[in-house]
């Protein structure tokens, strides 16, 4: 027979032990939460600092499988819920990180206020050397960027805007004649097509049709970013460029963020990790992304901030080029001739290369191939290959930073945003 007093004593001992362990574990969780908050505030939370390699394809497939629903949610958000910029619930649509040149400010002031009121971009998508070019705007919305650039491409150029939201396109189409007269053109040099940026072929856009593609805070809204890049690559001419601003995250986003309608509509839920962009560009066939500029995105909405947790976001502008196949990638010496409108003294190509007029600069092989095969070919004088030996007076080209979070930190600390200097002074002295 078992002693009942022993059962009671044993039971009490077990309960005391379990409670003791639970109290220790609870204390550990409290300390862990406190540590996470303190590290997140310091900006050194390493888990969030880089993307998990090899996971973007699975994420893309999952998002793509919900494509129709995401499209409907985004159309509802920007067609019915958000009527003007002030209706947005966060600061994702931030001002450009750099001062806007005077000729671009003038082009912006010529855009009708009704169009500007419905602008939801996160950067400034004004690539250089636009005169006479054919340009495509992915996710053009109410048409602000289309109309701004229409004055810069001139009457001989043309811009097509593509968007899936009918309410936005109604605004854009309403002011075609207004802007044609404002520019003094004899006929419109813009048109607007309703369609999906993942389905440019279905929208009737053929291969090798455009010199430049722009996009302003729209790629993150797509459920299938791989297809967006593939379609962009298809419709670009050889030497063509995809120049776009978008929101990027500090790490792979969990399902509770990517499935949240408001976070997706506010450009956070669908944000790529910047490393995924690098991998996707390579898979599709583009050149390595050239980082132009970046700025921190603050949410300033307590409810959304609590959902986003420790994840950080930036607005970044990249340029990707469709370099013709079998193009040699050899470093070379070159000089910028200064003939691009608005950039007569210097051309800031990206955060690494700024070309000053008549300064001789050595560029890496990929940049050399970009400049020689794109619309920029006529804007530079290229030195003979025999002058690019390691014994030249130019310092070897350095590695190009593509991490927008690093660039933001460099800018905050007072670091230069361009590492290029003329290596030999004026062209005649080299």
From TrEMBL:
GO CC terms on record? cytosol
Q: Membrane-spanning residues where?
A: none
Give one Pfam family. Answer: Methyltransf_31
Q: Which GO terms describe its biological process?
A: arsonoacetate metabolic process; toxin metabolic process
Task: Please give one Gene Ontology molecular function term for this protein.
Answer: arsenite methyltransferase activity
Which leading EC class covers this enzyme? transferase
Catalytic reaction list: arsenic triglutathione + [thioredoxin]-dithiol + S-adenosyl-L-methionine + 2 H2O = methylarsonous acid + [thioredoxin]-disulfide + 3 glutathione + S-adenosyl-L-homocysteine + H(+); arsenic triglutathione + 3 [thioredoxin]-dithiol + 3 S-adenosyl-L-methionine = trimethylarsine + 3 [thioredoxin]-disulfide + 3 glutathione + 3 S-adenosyl-L-homocysteine + 3 H(+); arsenic triglutathione + 2 [thioredoxin]-dithiol + 2 S-adenosyl-L-methionine + H2O = dimethylarsinous acid + 2 [thioredoxin]-disulfide + 3 glutathione + 2 S-adenosyl-L-homocysteine + 2 H(+)
| EC annotation from Swiss-Prot or TrEMBL | 2.1.1.137
Every Methyltransferase domain range:
132-284
Q: What PANTHER family does the database record attribute to this sequence?
A: ARSENITE METHYLTRANSFERASE
Identify its protein family: Belongs to the methyltransferase superfamily. Arsenite methyltransferase family.
* Protein name from the UniProt record: Arsenite methyltransferase
Q: Which organism is it from?
A: Synaphobranchus kaupii (Kaup's arrowtooth eel)
């Amino acid at each position: 027979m078992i002693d009942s007093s022993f059962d009671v004593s044993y039971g009490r001992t077990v309960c005391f032990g379990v409670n003791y362990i639970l109290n220790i574990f609870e204390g550990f969780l409290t300390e862990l939460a406190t540590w996470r908050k303190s590290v997140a505030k310091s900006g050194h939370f390493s888990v969030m600092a880089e993307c998990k390699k090899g996971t973007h394809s699975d994420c893309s497939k999952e998002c793509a499988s919900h494509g129709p629903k995401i499209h409907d949610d985004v159309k509802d958000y920007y067609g019915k819920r958000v009527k003007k910029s002030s209706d947005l619930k966060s600061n994702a649509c931030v001002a450009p990180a750099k001062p806007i040149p005077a000729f671009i400010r003038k082009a912006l002031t010529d855009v009708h206020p009704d169009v500007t009121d419905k602008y939801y971009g996160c950067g400034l998508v004004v690539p250089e050397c636009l005169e006479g070019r054919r340009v495509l705007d992915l996710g053009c919305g109410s048409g602000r960027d289309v109309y701004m650039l229409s004055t810069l491409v001139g009457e001989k150029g043309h811009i097509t805007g593509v968007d899936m939201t009918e309410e936005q396109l109604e605004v854009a189409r309403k002011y075609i004649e207004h802007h044609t007269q404002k520019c003094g053109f004899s006929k419109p040099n813009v048109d607007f097509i309703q369609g999906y940026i993942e389905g440019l072929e279905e929208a009737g856009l053929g291969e090798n049709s455009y010199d430049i593609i722009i996009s302003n805070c729209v790629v993150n809204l797509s459920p299938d970013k791989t297809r967006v890049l593939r379609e962009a690559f298809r419709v670009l001419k050889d030497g063509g460029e995809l120049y776009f601003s978008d929101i990027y995250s500090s790490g792979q986003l969990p399902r509770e963020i990517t499935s949240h309608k408001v976070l997706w509509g506010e450009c956070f839920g669908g944000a790529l990790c910047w490393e995924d962009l690098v991998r996707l560009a390579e898979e599709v066939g583009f050149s390595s992304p050239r980082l132009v500029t970046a700025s921190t995105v603050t949410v300033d909405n307590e409810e959304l901030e609590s959902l986003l947790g420790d994840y950080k976001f930036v607005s970044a502008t990249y340029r990707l080029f469709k370099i013709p196949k079998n193009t040699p990638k050899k470093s070379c010496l070159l000089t910028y001739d200064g003939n691009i409108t608005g950039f007569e003294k210097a051309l800031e190509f990206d955060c690494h290369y700024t070309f000053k007029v008549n300064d001789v600069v050595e560029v890496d092989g990929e940049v050399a191939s970009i400049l020689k095969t794109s619309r920029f070919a006529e804007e530079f004088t290229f030195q003979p290959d025999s002058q690019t030996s390691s014994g030249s007076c130019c310092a070897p080209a350095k590695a190009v930073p593509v991490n927008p979070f690093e660039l933001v930190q460099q800018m905050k600390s007072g670091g230069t945003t361009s590492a290029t200097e003329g290596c030999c002074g004026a062209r005649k002295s080299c």
